[in-house]
Design brief:
Blueprint lengths: L7 H4 L8 H25 L14 H7 L4 H14 L3 H17 L7 H19 L1
């Protein structure tokens, strides 16, 4: 992941930041959300056993569990075209967006979750392209 210089305004900002303890609590809560999501799948559908987190979703599960709005679809389509991303990258972006939504305790993948996931993929592409 690319590390960019921190802006002076960020360094001098006196607004309180999120503590490591709070971040840890959000991560634990997100993992519990995922555990609950996938335990329900394991009991009700064939072939779901062994899935514990968003990264393990199949393409079919991505389509079922990572529903995005029309605005989100348009954003993702634009990103796919501009970054020349593959179908595999599409699934990865949706999985990351689902995780970002879980960290925010959001049932739905909102456009800001999707935009953040696309940004991570974009940074990854820039680093590999060299």
């Amino acid at each position: 992941m690319e590390v960019v210089p921190v802006a002076f305004s960020e360094l001098t900002n006196t607004k309180p930041t999120e503590t490591s303890d709070k971040i840890r609590e959000r991560v634990i809560a997100a993992r519990q959300i995922q555990e609950k999501r996938y335990s329900g799948l394991a009991n009700g559908q064939e072939g779901q056993n062994g899935i514990f987190c968003n990264a393990q979703m199949s393409s079919k599960q991505v389509r079922e569990l990572c529903v995005i709005t029309t605005a989100g679809q348009n954003l993702l389509k634009t990103a796919m075209e501009r970054l020349s991303l593959s179908a595999r990258a599409y699934d990865r972006i949706l999985k990351v967006a689902r995780t970002i939504a879980d960290l925010a305790a959001s049932e739905d993948i909102k456009i800001e979750h999707l935009a953040e996931a696309i940004q991570y993929r974009s940074l990854d592409r820039e680093n590999w392209a060299g």
